[in-house]
Structures are given as C-alpha cells and as structure tokens.
Design goal:
Elements lengths: L1 H22 L13 E9 L2 E7 L7 E7 L5 E8 L4 E4 L7 E10 L2 E2 L6 E4 L12 E8 L4 E6 L7 E7 L5 E8 L4 E4 L7 E10 L2 E2 L6 E4 L9 E9 L2 E7 L7 E7 L6 E7 L4 E4 L7 E9 L11 E4 L13 E6 L2 E5 L9 E7 L7 E7 L4 E4 L8 E9 L2 E2 L6 E3 L1 H5 L10 E5 L2 E5 L6 E7 L4 E7 L2 E5 L6 E8 L4 E8 L1
Antiparallel strand pairs: 1-2, 2-5, 3-4, 3-6, 6-7, 6-8, 9-10, 10-13, 11-12, 11-14, 14-15, 14-16, 17-18, 18-21, 19-20, 19-22, 22-23, 24-25, 25-28, 26-27, 26-29, 29-30, 29-31, 32-33, 33-36, 34-35, 34-37, 37-38
C-alpha cells in the first residue's frame, strides 16, 4: 500500500510547483522614470527658443515641457514622446524672457522636474516701414489745411510731415505719432498755396515719400491790430501808434470817442501803416481811440482802447504898463504895452469901488494896445485892469490903474456959441440948445456933489449957498453931457 502511494504524491507536488511558476505574476512593480538632466534654453530668433536636455531614463513613456512668464507660475506647453531630447518653442514675442522646466513620465507617474532655465527672445528684426499713400486734403479754411492718408506700415514709430511754399523746397513741420492717419496744419496765412508730403519712420530708417498734395488757404478777415498807444504831443494833437498783426489787410479804420463808449470813425488809413497824427483837437480834452483792420471779407476785431488827454494851452503873459487918462468927462483912454505870448484877446474890466467888484466892459483883439472908455458918465473914481486870454485860460491881471473922479470933472468939454455956461457973480447962467429939460450937477474939486436939480435950457441958478472957489458944472440929458469949470468969488 505504501509502495503504490509515493509516486502519486510526488506527481501532485510537482504539478503544484509548476502551476505556481507558470500562472503566478512576478513579485516586483515598475518605478517612475529618472528626472531629465542638463536642460538648456537658447533663443534663436525673435519668435523661437530651442530647448535641449539629457534623457537619463530608460523607461519613460514621454516628456512634459512647461513654460512660465515670471519663473513662478508654469503651464504645460508640450507632450513629447519617449527618448525626446529637444524641443522648439515657436510663435513667441520678441525681446521677452521665458522660463522652462521638463519632466519625464511613465505608467508609474512623473519624475521630478528638471532644472529651470530661461532665455530672452531676440529683438524683432526691424526694416524700413512702408511709405504712406493716398495723402489728400480734406478741408481748407483761411488759416488751416486738414490732411489725411493711408498708413501702410505696421512697424512705424511715427510720421514726418513736410510742407513747401513752392512745391520744390520742403521742410519738416511736424512729427506725428505712429498709426495716425490725419493731421491739421494750423496758423497758416490766408490766400496762400501750400504743398505737403509725408513719410513713415522707425529705427531702421525712413520710408519713401507719399504723393505730394497742395491746397490754397481762403481769404479771411485780418488779424486785429495790437498795442494801440495814444500820446498827446501838444494842446491840439495826439499821435497814435500800433502793431500791424495782419498780412492781408487793405487798410485800417481809426475811431475816436469823447466818453469811451460812443465811437466815430475819423480816418481810413492805408494798409501796413503803424501810426497816425490826429490834429485839430481841443486843448485839455481826453480822447479815446480804437482801431481795426479791414479787407474785402470784412473788418477785424477792434484793438484795445487807448486814451490820451491833450496838453493845456499855456496862458498868455501878464499885460503891463496899464495907464488910464481922462480925455473928457465921458471919455477915459487906456493904454498898455503889447501883450506877449499866444493871446487870443484882451479883456478890459472896470470897477467903481475898491472891493474888487470888476466887470468886463470890452473884449479886444490880442494886438490891441489902447481902449477908450466912453461909458464913464458918473463923476466917481474908476478902477481898471486888463488880462490876456486864450483857449488855455487867462493871464494874470495887470496892475490896476485908477482914475479919480476929481480928474474926470476937470476935463472940460468945449462949449459952442449955442451952449453957454458961466458964473456971473453968485448966479449961474445956462443958455443951451433947446431941450425939454436938463439935469444940473455941481461938484467941488473933490468930486462931492453940492447941488443937483432939473433946469430948463435957459436958466439962472442962485449960487449963494456955495463957498467961494472952483466948481465943476455938469449939465446933461439922456444923450448930451456938457461939463464946464466955474469960479465963484
């Protein structure tokens, strides 16, 4: 029994061992791949960086490439097959820094990251920009021309605009920013033709010029004059000066005012003038002025208002050597030396008292040196003075000349055969031309009235109350005056 069992047990044991060897899997598991080594980054153009590394693993199934813009936050940009050792990163931005890292992977997972490297893409390759085209004038005014064009470049840093007054000699007038397609040329002269051309530029150089265009500015009203100054140079004249700010005026209009509000045109002045003499003015008077330029389009704005006051006329010199002499009881003659200075007239004044109550009795030409006062009818003292006058005022008065009443009554008027006045003893005899009535006045030599009464043309007057002496008899009507000296014994 035991002899037959042994072979069978051996067979079962052998079968069990073979089963285990054939059917059971290996007892070990696959590890993650080794990290890539020696990562390098090389910029080869403005848009490309090449990466290279050492594949240190034998069991990777691929690689992952990651990139960062700040060296901190990385993003996967490529999955590469196993055994890869390089990568070309394209479509980058010129002059930009990029950071990179790489790791390998297999079914068990990822390796650690490689070293981090960075590279800066090369600067862009700059070429001369394309020339702008279709330069054209859009609008024109009297002082401005507007331009537009087509920008054919994508890499210009700006434009240069040139202008010419003859279409041949051009000069740059403006640096214009990149991507602009229009420009306004301002501050131009009116009725003037201008030519324009344009180019694009960058650090590589300048493009060819655009086409040339031209336009003529319109006529406009002139610029207003500036800096108007009024200066009084005499009692009768004010000189005006201003700055001509226009190039297209046909003339100027000068206006004047006495109050600074209501102005009246006083002169049309030729173009390009910068001064004017306003004459025949009143002395010591303030005048206001303003001026504007004009042309066929119309007037400019007014200048600022300027004012000046004409000078005061110097008064004449004081008259001198005034004398007053009675020639008759109703006639006193004044004489004086010729008046010097710019007098227009001589004024004669008279007073009958010493309190200075003078009144004008005559106004004579400035050349006068004599005056006869025929209005001195009263037997009293007279005071005379004269002054010279002009538009500027009056001279000082002359010294006063006095005519005493006693000298007036001693100036006899000659009697005719028809007029007789005399004393016969103590009787006054009067025989005159027939008149309705006379007034008789008898004065002593001091000018004191001693007797006054109405008398007939033929009268006899008793003088018995008068003391012996010399008396003056005045017989007068409205239009006649007779004076005679009598002696009473």
């Amino acid at each position: 029994m035991k002899k037959h069992c042994m072979p069978a047990m051996r067979f079962v044991l052998y079968a069990l061992i073979m089963n285990l060897l054939v059917l059971s899997p290996p007892a070990y598991s696959l590890a993650v791949p080794v990290v890539p080594a020696s990562l390098k980054a090389t910029a080869v153009s403005p848009v490309q960086i090449n990466l290279e590394w050492t594949d240190a693993s034998l069991d990777e199934t691929g690689f992952e490439v990651e990139r960062s813009l700040d060296g901190k936050v990385f993003v996967r940009i490529a999955d590469l097959p196993a055994n890869s050792k390089a990568f070309q990163n394209l479509q980058l931005i010129a002059s930009t820094t990029y950071w990179y890292r790489v790791r390998s992977k297999n079914a068990s997972g990822f390796s650690a990251y490689s070293n981090v490297v960075s590279a800066v893409t090369k600067p862009p390759v700059i070429t001369i920009p394309k020339a702008p085209s279709s330069l054209a004038v859009t609008t024109v005014t009297g002082k401005e021309i507007n331009l537009k064009w087509t920008d054919n470049a994508t890499d210009e840093t700006g434009f240069e605009l040139e202008r010419s007054l003859n279409g041949t000699a051009f000069a740059k007038i403006a640096d214009i920013t990149a991507n602009a397609t229009a420009y306004a040329d301002t501050g131009l002269a009116s009725t003037t033709k201008y030519w324009y051309r344009l180019l694009a530029k960058n650090t590589a150089g300048k493009s060819a010029y655009s086409n040339v265009v031209s336009a003529t500015t319109l006529e406009v009203v002139p610029n207003a004059p500036a800096g108007l100054i009024a200066t009084a140079v005499s009692p009768f004249q004010i000189n005006l000066a201003w700055t001509d700010k226009a190039v297209n005026e046909t003339g100027f209009q000068l206006e004047r005012s006495l109050d600074g509000v209501t102005f009246t045109k006083i002169a049309d002045i030729a173009a390009n003038r910068i001064g004017y003499e306003n004459r025949d003015l009143a002395p010591a008077t303030k005048y206001y002025y303003r001026i504007r330029a004009v042309n066929l389009i119309g007037p400019s704005a007014y200048s600022a208002v300027s004012s000046a006051t004409t000078q005061q006329i110097p008064v004449p010199d004081m008259p001198s050597n005034l004398t007053a002499v009675p020639l008759a009881p109703d006639l006193i003659q004044l004489n004086w030396s010729p008046v010097t200075g710019n007098a227009n007239a001589i004024v004669v004044e008279r007073s009958q008292n010493t309190d200075g109550n003078f009144r004008e009795i005559a106004r004579l030409p400035a050349s006068a040196v004599q005056y006869q006062d025929k209005d001195s009818l009263a037997i009293t003292d007279y005071y005379y003075r004269i002054k010279a006058v002009n538009a500027g005022g009056s001279s000082p008065y002359s010294l006063i000349s006095i005519v005493r009443g006693s000298t007036i009554i001693t100036a006899n008027e000659p009697l005719t055969n028809q007029n007789r006045i005399y004393a016969y003893g103590r009787t006054l005899v009067i025989d005159l031309k027939p008149k309705p009535q006379y007034q008789l006045s008898i004065y002593d030599l001091n000018g004191i009235l001693r007797n006054q009464q109405n008398v007939q043309p033929s009268s006899r007057i008793d003088l018995g109350l008068l003391h012996p002496g010399i008396y003056i008899v005045v017989v007068e009507t409205e239009n006649t005056r007779l004076t005679h000296k009598i002696v009473i014994d």
